[in-house]
């Protein structure tokens, strides 16, 4: 909305003063002796200005021209000049100083400020005090008037007027507006190519004046690179649709200096036409512009994109396990190093930070949730050069440990943030991110020379350790009925609390190896267990090693596993596959007396 103060050109108002202030009865063109007088009050109405009827003055100045009309001998001194509002008596001008004017001369008083906020009519009252030394007793010929006053008003700005409106200086608004002005990371563009969209511009002229408006949007360019400019004539008291569904197809928004910016600059020039008749104008009158930009579809964006959240999208990964879902049960499902990857293909030149979750639920009502974030992913950011995201194996293992039966399916909720690091990017309307999930769980696999190493705590109480000190030796038999389709080789190394190696377990003797080996069950051609393997091994320990065991705080365990099928071909783990262990033995104690 544009409102303004008007500038008025007001013709000078004039007052002619006769001879009554001298206290003598004389006529123009006669001869008379002018007596001396001092500070005689003079009051008279000015003539009527034809430039306006009334006006509320906000600012302005008055120049006075006072002409002494006497031909000779008589000088005049004018002081305490006042110009009053004729209808209310309010003082418009007050000049307290004096001005002496020789005969047939004009004295000038410049730029006396007008009292602001007054509403005046087009006629004033002129007041002053006049003094003269007279004609020195000599006869002088009298002119038509003793003196004449002209008040010339300049720089007159009014907030309301009934007047003939002169040409006004253009009202120019040269500003800019900011996208996302309150954001710490606003989207900034170097260039935006518009595929489709429209703009409407409606102007409401509440002024009683015809006008011409020009709007320039400096950053908006057409397909030829020309700046958007529109100029229209608007009749008084009219509403005009300047632009109606104006197509922005193939227009662009560009940075004026090439650097990314969130500023769009514009310039509006508003020029009112002068009038030959009296119009009523108020400063509250205005021209209102309404700009409406329809939905824009962009071909391409180049610049610094504010990080944008993408809402989670739901997808499902089904497990086709048939009856295995009900037959295969565990205390917990514990996968070692399962593989889960999200492979994405992106044509966009920006990064995408994945954020979401995986939910699983089985027929027992057991539920597990795995967040997809920087803690559970190898790297949550997809870039044009790195489009594979892997879920950390430990995180995925913990996810499955909450189940004792396989989940029916996994629900993936995937969303995230576009351009999380607030970089300069190029985005096209044809860009897309598509992908697929890969989940591999080791339930049907061949194993050759696989090794699993881990550390386990030797959880012995002080009392247990004291009792072991009394043991001279022990021997144990371990009978293993192996119903699993893998052979198992076990060895352990004991360490104290300072990480010093103590001994193997089983200990190494000439007749005993440090490795306990158990063959796997026999399998058929499909990898299914057909015959369990029964095997018994003996383990012994002497006093020296037992004393070392009492000092142990943890054991490093190594399991070596191989498929028991020929050539290590894949075998299958079933709920009927199991391992049975039976232990027996003897201990030699040192009995204290």
Concise overview:
This protein has four helices and 44 strands. By secondary structure, the protein is mostly beta strands.
Structure description:
With 593 residues, the chain is mainly β. Helix content is 5%, strand content 55%. It is built from four helices and 44 strands.
Q: What's the arrangement of secondary structure elements?
A:
Elements: E1 6-8, E2 13-17, E3 31-33, E4 37-45, E5 52-68, E6 76-85, E7 91-101, E8 106-113, E9 119-121, E10 124-132, E11 139-141, E12 147-164, E13 171-178, E14 188-196, E15 198-205, E16 211-221, E17 227-234, E18 238-247, E19 252-254, E20 263-272, E21 278-282, E22 287-293, E23 297-304, E24 308-318, H1 324-327, E25 339-346, E26 352-361, E27 367-372, E28 381-382, E29 388-390, H2 393-400, E30 409-418, E31 424-428, E32 433-440, E33 444-445, E34 450-457, H3 462-469, E35 471-482, E36 486-495, E37 501-505, E38 516-518, E39 522-523, E40 529-531, E41 533-542, H4 543-551, E42 554-563, E43 571-572, E44 579-589
Antiparallel strand pairs: 1-12, 2-12, 3-11, 4-10, 5-8, 5-9, 5-12, 6-7, 6-10, 12-21, 13-20, 14-19, 14-23, 15-18, 15-22, 16-17, 16-19, 16-20, 23-31, 24-30, 25-29, 25-32, 26-27, 26-28, 26-30, 33-43, 34-42, 35-41, 35-44, 36-37, 36-38, 36-42, 39-40
Helix pairs in contact: 3-4
């Amino acid at each position: 909305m544009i409102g303004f103060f008007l500038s008025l050109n007001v013709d000078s108002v004039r007052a002619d003063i006769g001879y009554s202030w001298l206290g003598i009865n004389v006529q123009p063109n006669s001869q008379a002796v002018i007596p001396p007088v001092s500070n005689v009050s003079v009051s008279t109405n000015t003539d009527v200005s034809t430039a306006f009827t009334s006006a509320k003055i906000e600012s302005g100045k008055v120049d006075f021209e006072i002409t002494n009309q006497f031909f000779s001998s008589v000088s005049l001194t004018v002081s305490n000049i006042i110009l009053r509002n004729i209808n209310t008596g309010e003082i418009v001008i007050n000049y307290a100083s004096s001005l002496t004017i020789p005969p047939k001369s004009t004295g000038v008083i410049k730029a006396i400020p007008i009292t602001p906020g007054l509403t005046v009519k087009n006629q004033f009252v002129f007041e002053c005090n006049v003094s003269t030394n007279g004609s020195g007793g000599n006869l002088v010929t009298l002119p038509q008037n003793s003196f004449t006053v002209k008040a010339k008003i300049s720089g007159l700005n009014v907030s309301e007027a009934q007047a003939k409106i002169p040409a006004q200086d253009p009202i120019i608004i040269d500003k800019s507006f900011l996208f996302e002005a309150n954001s710490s990371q606003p989207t900034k563009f170097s260039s935006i190519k518009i595929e489709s969209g429209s703009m409407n511009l409606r102007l409401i002229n509440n002024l009683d004046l015809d006008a011409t408006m020009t709007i320039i949007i400096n950053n908006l360019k057409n397909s030829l690179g020309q700046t958007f400019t529109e100029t229209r004539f608007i009749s008084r008291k009219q509403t005009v649709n300047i632009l109606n569904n104006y197509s922005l197809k193939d227009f662009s928004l560009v940075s004026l200096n090439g650097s990314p910016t969130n500023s769009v600059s514009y310039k509006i020039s508003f020029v009112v036409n002068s009038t030959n008749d009296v119009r009523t104008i108020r400063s509250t009158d205005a021209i209102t512009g309404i700009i409406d930009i329809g939905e824009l579809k962009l071909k391409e964006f180049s610049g610094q994109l504010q990080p944008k959240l993408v809402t989670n999208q739901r997808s499902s990964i089904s497990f086709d396990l048939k009856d295995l879902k009900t037959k295969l049960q565990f205390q917990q499902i514990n996968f070692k190093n399962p593989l889960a990857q999200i492979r994405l293909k992106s044509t966009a030149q920006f990064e995408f930070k994945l954020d979401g979750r995986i939910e699983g639920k089985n027929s027992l009502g057991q539920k597990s949730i795995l967040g997809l974030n920087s803690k559970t992913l190898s790297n949550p950011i997809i870039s044009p050069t790195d489009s594979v995201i892997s879920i950390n194996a430990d995180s995925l293992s913990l996810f499955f440990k909450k189940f004792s039966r396989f989940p029916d399916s996994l629900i993936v909720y995937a969303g995230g943030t576009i351009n999380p690091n607030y970089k300069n990017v190029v985005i096209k309307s044809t860009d897309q991110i598509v992908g697929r999930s890969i989940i591999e769980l080791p339930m049907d696999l061949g194993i050759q020379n696989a090794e699993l190493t881990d550390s386990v705590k030797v959880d012995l109480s002080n009392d247990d350790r004291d009792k072991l000190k009394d043991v001279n030796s022990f021997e144990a038999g371990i009978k293993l009925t192996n119903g699993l389709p893998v052979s198992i080789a076990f060895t352990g190394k004991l360490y104290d609390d300072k990480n010093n190696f103590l001994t193997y377990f089983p200990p190494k003797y000439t007749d005993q190896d440090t490795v306990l080996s158990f063959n796997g069950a026999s399998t058929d051609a499909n990898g299914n267990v057909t015959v369990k393997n029964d095997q018994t091994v003996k383990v012994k320990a002497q006093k020296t090693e037992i004393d070392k065991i009492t000092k142990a705080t943890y054991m490093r365990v190594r399991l070596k596993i191989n498929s028991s099928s020929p050539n290590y071909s894949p075998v299958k783990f079933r709920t009927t596959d199991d391992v049975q262990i039976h232990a027996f033995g003897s201990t030699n104690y040192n009995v204290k007396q």
